[in-house]
Amino acid sequence: MKLLVIGSGAREHALVWRLTRDSGRHEIICAPGNAGIESVARLAPVDPGDPEAVLGLAEQEGIDLTIVGPELPLTRGVADLFASRGRLLLGPTREAAELESSKAFAKGFMARHGVPTARYQVCETPDIALAVLATRQFGYPVVIKADGLAAGKGVVIATDQLNATLAVRGMMVERRFGDAGARVVIEEFMQGQEASVFALTDGRRAVLLPTAQDHKRAFDGDAGPNTGGMGAFAPSPLVDDQLLDRIRDTIILPVIDGMREEGRAFRGFLYAGLMLTAEGPKVVEFNVRMGDPEAQVVLPMIDGDLAPLLRDAAAGELRQDSCRVRDWPRVGVVIASAGYPDKYETGKVISGLGAAGAVPGVVVFHAGTARRGADIVTAGGRVLTVVAEGQDYRQAVSRAYDAAQRIAFEGAFMRRDIGRKALQAGS
């Protein structure tokens, strides 16, 4: 097949890398890609956020299947445009993508279809939000979410009234996240441990992929600000087969059925971020694409040919409800630029990539990188994800950090506790 992968991060690098492992040979183009992806695919300088440009590239190249990595093209209607021209694309329509692009829509949808989640209130103005906080109906800590897309950073867990008030003002008055914070969702804080579940769906059927656990906070011990993700591991030792069946029956399938019933049939990757509470699994958030950095640890675990599976989902013709999974776990450590997730500098020369990739069982996926002459330099906040497999989590963690410490650039930092939760769970 001739494949087009849209995006420029480590998620897309992992996807392209995994597609090259299929038994059949594919011609792969990535738009726009990065300095790591160029070693496994041809790059095309197209803006992922421009649906017309993406369609033009697919038509010009005679692409058989387009696979969208990030959420922005989906929320701008790239799937709708491709469908109108009879071209195959894996990803939900603009209306279906509201599961991610609007926290308020997602909450209302879950309420309509009985999908378990936290109690909540949607607030259209700062005054309404402050009045809700004044009632203390959700207690403290309380969760405040910007309604729209905020690159994984538009969530504040406020421990008291003052911090909650500051969060509301930051989102709704100061517009720290732009228009994404014009409306907020205030919800109860759920107690439990988090896990991520991924499904590939054709709008009716679903193939559940390996589970994972993400690390959103910037620093060790889940301290510091929220980021797009500082590391992940897969599978989650918290989710056994019995719990996964419950998640499928109470969350994944009701969402797929509900979206179809509302005229928003969902095709593509559905990500459910879950809190495993004493009452059972509840939804924290949805993404309408593979997570990052979860994709980097989940995709290498999928056995068998991936491209035909993705094509069948895009065409609405999934013929299976499970996929083969490799036994060994994966651990992924993100190396980031100093200052991330706030202000950071780019253009720093990266060394040690070859030495890191030489560690047994390790693959280095590029996120924010670019080529400058003979050098590879930093070009983003999250720069690399170092992924290692191991016969158990202990070996995977050891290999990941052995490789990560061989990489250097000015201001580089990483968390030192990725995978510790898996070790504590006894894996």
How would you describe the overall organization of this protein?
With 427 residues, the chain is α+β, with helices and mostly antiparallel strands. Helices cover 30% and strands 26% of the residues. The protein has 14 helices and 22 strands. The protein has helices spanning 10-19, 51-61, 72-75, 78-84, 98-101, 103-113, 126-135, 161-173, 241-261, 294-298, 307-314, 353-357, 393-404, 420-424, and strands at 2-7, 27-32, 42-43, 65-68, 89-90, 120-123, 142-146, 155-158, 184-188, 193-201, 206-208, 213-214, 217-219, 223-226, 231-234, 268-277, 280-287, 330-336, 362-366, 369-372, 375-378, 382-389. The strands form six sheets. A five-stranded parallel sheet has the order 3-2-1-4-5. Helix 7 (126-135) runs antiparallel to helix 8. It is globular, with a radius of gyration of 21 Å. The model has no long low-confidence stretch (mean pLDDT 95).
